[in-house]
Design a protein that fits this description.
The complex is a heterodimer of chains A (172) and B (200).
Chain A lengths: L2 H9 L5 H20 L2 H18 L9 H20 L4 H12 L9 H7 L2 H12 L4 H8 L3 H19 L7
Chain B lengths: L3 H9 L5 H13 L1 H26 L6 H76 L10 E2 L5 E2 L3 H5 L1 H13 L8 H11 L1
Antiparallel strand pairs in B: 1-2
Helix pairs in contact in B: 1-3, 4-6, 4-7
Classes of the chains: A mainly alpha (172), B mainly alpha (200).
Chain lengths: 172, 200
C-alpha cells in the first residue's frame, strides 16, 4: 500500500459507521457482487457486512485499514454463503469448459456474461486488482492466501476471461 | 520466452521484477502474439474497470443499515411510550385502589346507617303492631282483666295500662291517630347504598 493510500485509509479510521457506510458500501457491494454475481445477494451481503462490522467494531485492532477489514468480512460472508447454498458452483465448471473447449469462432459474449461464468475466486481477484487496484500483497491479505497463489490465480482468471471474450476473428 | 503470458499478467499489474523487464520488452517487440495478448489484457483491464464502475449506475442502493438505526430509534421511542403508558396505568391503578378504599369506607358507613334506619323502622313497626294489638285488646270483652299478656306476631309482650283502659274512648282516638300518622318508610338495601354512592 502506498503512503498516500495509507494516509487516506487512516483518515477514515475515525469515521462514524454511517459515514463509513456511505464511503465504502458501494465498494463492498461491488466486491460481494463479483463473488456472488447477483445484485440482490450482494445487497444482502452489504447489510450483513456492516452489521457484523458494527457488532465487532470494538474488536478492530487497526492491523489493517477499515476498508480491508470490511472486505475481509464481506469475503467470509460471501464464501460462507456459497458454501452453505452450494451457490453457483456450476460456474466454475462452465468457465473451465468454456476455456478448454470453446473454439476461436465461438460467438462473442459480453464481459458481464463472461464474468458470470467465471468462478467466484477468479472474479474476486479481478475485482480487487482491476478495480480496487490493490497490490498482490494486499490481495493476499484480504483473501488469506499466498502472494504466489494470487499471481497464478489472477493470471489464470485473465486467461479464461480472455478466451471467453474472444470473437470469431480472435480479437476482443 | 517461457511463461510469457504469465509475465504479461505480472507486467500489467506492475509486479514484473525489474531484472526481468529488459528481456520481457525485447521478447515483446519480437513476438506479435505476445503484443496482441498484452493489448487484450489492457482492454480487459479497462473493460473491467468500466464494468465495476457501471454497477453504481444500475442499482438503487439500499441503506438498510441506516434504516436499521432508524428502526432502533423507533424501537427506543416505542419503548419510552410503553414505559410512559405503563407508568400512567400504574398511577391510575393506585388512584383507583385508594378511591376504592374510600368507597369501601363510605359503603360501610352507609351500611351502618342503613342498619340503624332499618332497626328504627322495625321498632316503629313493632310499636304500631303493639298499638294495634292494644287497641284490639281494649275493644274485646276480656279487657277487664287486670293484667293480660299478649303475644303479637313479633313476639312482643304487651301490658295494657289500667288507667288507659278506663278512659278507653279517648285512648282509642289517640291510638288511631298514632297509627294513622306513623312514619312508616319502605326502603331497600340496594336503593340505599346506590343513593349513598351517587351522593359521594
Amino acid at each position: 500500500m502506498t503512503n498516500e493510500k495509507v494516509t487516506a485509509e487512516l483518515d477514515y479510521m475515525t469515521l462514524s459507521l454511517p459515514d463509513l457506510f456511505e464511503k465504502y458500501s458501494l465498494d463492498v457491494f461491488r466486491y460481494a457482487k463479483s463473488i456472488l454475481k447477483e445484485s440482490d445477494e450482494a445487497k444482502d451481503a452489504v447489510q450483513e457486512v456492516f452489521l457484523k462490522y458494527a457488532k465487532n467494531e470494538k474488536s478492530f485492532k487497526g492491523n489493517c485499514s477499515q476498508k480491508t477489514w470490511l472486505l475481509i468480512i464481506a469475503r467470509n460472508y460471501c464464501f460462507n454463503k456459497i458454501k452453505n447454498n452450494n451457490y453457483k458452483n456450476i460456474s466454475i465448471d462452465n468457465a473451465e469448459i468454456a476455456f478448454y473447449s470453446a473454439p476461436d469462432f465461438e460467438m462473442k459474449i459480453s464481459l458481464e456474461e463472461a464474468l458470470k461464468l467465471l468462478s467466484p475466486e477468479h472474479n474476486e481477484l479481478l475485482y480487487l486488482k482491476e478495480y480496487s487496484n490493490y497490490s498482490y500483497k494486499e490481495i493476499a491479505e484480504i483473501t488469506n492466501q499466498t502472494v504466489e497463489n494470487v499471481k497464478i490465480k489472477l493470471f489464470r482468471g485473465r486467461q479464461i476471461l480472455r478466451k471467453m471474450l474472444k470473437n470469431e476473428r480472435g480479437t476482443l | 520466452m517461457k511463461d510469457i503470458e504469465y509475465k504479461i499478467s505480472l507486467f500489467i499489474d506492475n509486479e514484473l521484477p525489474e531484472n526481468e523487464q529488459a528481456d520481457f520488452f525485447k521478447y515483446l517487440s519480437e513476438d506479435k502474439d505476445s503484443r496482441e495478448m498484452l493489448s487484450d489484457l489492457n482492454k480487459m483491464k479497462t473493460g473491467l474497470k468500466e464494468h465495476y464502475n457501471d454497477i453504481k449506475g444500475d442499482m438503487d442502493f439500499p441503506l438498510t443499515l441506516v434504516k436499521g438505526n432508524d428502526n432502533e430509534k423507533k424501537y427506543k421511542t416505542y419503548f419510552y411510550y410503553a414505559a410512559a403508558a405503563s407508568l400512567l396505568f400504574l398511577i391510575l391503578s393506585i388512584s383507583l385502589l385508594v378511591n376504592a378504599q374510600f368507597y369501601k369506607e363510605d359503603i360501610n358507613k352507609s351500611k351502618t346507617v342503613y342498619e340503624s334506619v332499618k332497626n328504627d323502622n322495625e321498632k316503629l313497626k313493632n310499636e304500631i303492631t303493639q298499638l294495634i294489638t292494644e287497641k284490639s285488646y281494649l275493644q274485646t270483652e276480656s279487657h277487664d282483666k287486670k293484667t293480660v299478656i299478649l303475644k303479637t306476631a313479633a313476639g312482643i309482650k304487651i301490658t295494657p295500662n289500667k288507667n288507659t283502659i278506663k278512659n278507653n274512648e279517648s285512648y282509642y282516638t289517640f291510638l288511631d291517630n298514632k297509627i294513622k300518622n306513623a312514619p312508616v318508610v319502605k326502603i331497600s338495601k340496594s336503593d340505599f347504598i346506590t343513593q349513598q354512592m351517587i351522593g359521594n
